């Protein structure tokens, strides 16, 4: 952990001070923004198996949630509207409750192997429309609802973050076994994980079984 403390006198206090720290925005970064999907944005969404959705509740509590499924799982209803199936999760419903309180959302679409991303900002609603949910069914299991996003702005994002992080580079993949399982980490941080390794393995196996049985 860093030993450097954050000193209040160096906090940026206003937009003018912020702007002085950076070069003027490149013209292309401004003109690339659209209010509806263009053909390349549509293709990007149809190829994407993963996105992150950012929301904020009525009291300002922010949240970012991953959403993933088969390539092109997000439906393009028209040039200004997307529909995201809400697959089974942990039932915290953080994203959904936030949308009920504050419809403004931000989406970040990713494609494995692509260093560029697609950003979509808009306003979301929650729909239980039967024919929409039926069109999103997998193996006869349809989602309980869909997140319908009315697009306010959409633009492609450059590759710098992915180039710096080497996210898709196999040479930079980390060994998952170097950290404990998800169940153990959660228990370590809360009630405490069992010391009996057989019990711990059983809990890990049960989670894997739940993954297989409840993806849809």
Automatic annotation (TrEMBL):
It comes from the Bacteria. Gene3D superfamilies: Electron Transport, Fmn-binding Protein, Chain A (2.30.110.10). It holds the Pfam family PNPOx_N. Residues 39-158 form the Pyridoxamine 5'-phosphate oxidase N-terminal domain. NCBIfam families: PPOX_FMN_DR2398. This is Pyridoxamine 5'-phosphate oxidase N-terminal domain-containing protein. It comes from Rhizobium rosettiformans.
């Amino acid at each position: 952990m860093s030993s450097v403390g954050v000193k209040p006198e160096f906090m940026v206090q206003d937009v003018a001070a912020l702007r002085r720290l950076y070069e003027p925005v490149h013209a292309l970064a401004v003109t690339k923004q659209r209010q509806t999907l263009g053909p390349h944005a549509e293709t990007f969404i149809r190829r994407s198996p993963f996105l992150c959705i950012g929301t904020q509740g009525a009291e300002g509590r922010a949240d970012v949630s991953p959403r993933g499924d088969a390539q092109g799982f997000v439906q393009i209803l028209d040039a200004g509207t997307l529909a995201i199936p809400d697959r089974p999760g942990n039932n915290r419903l953080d994203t959904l409750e936030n949308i009920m309180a504050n419809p403004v959302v931000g989406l970040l679409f990713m494609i494995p192997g692509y260093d560029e991303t697609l950003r979509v900002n808009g306003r979301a609603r929650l729909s239980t429309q039967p024919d929409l949910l039926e069109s999103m069914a997998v193996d006869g299991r349809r989602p309980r609802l869909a997140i319908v996003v009315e697009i306010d702005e959409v633009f492609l994002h450059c590759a710098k973050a992915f180039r710096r992080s080497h996210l898709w580079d196999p040479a930079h993949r980390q060994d998952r076994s170097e950290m404990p399982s998800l169940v153990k980490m959660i228990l370590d941080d809360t009630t405490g994980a069992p010391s009996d390794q057989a019990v711990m393995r059983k809990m890990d196996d049960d989670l894997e079984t739940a993954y297989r049985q409840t993806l849809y």
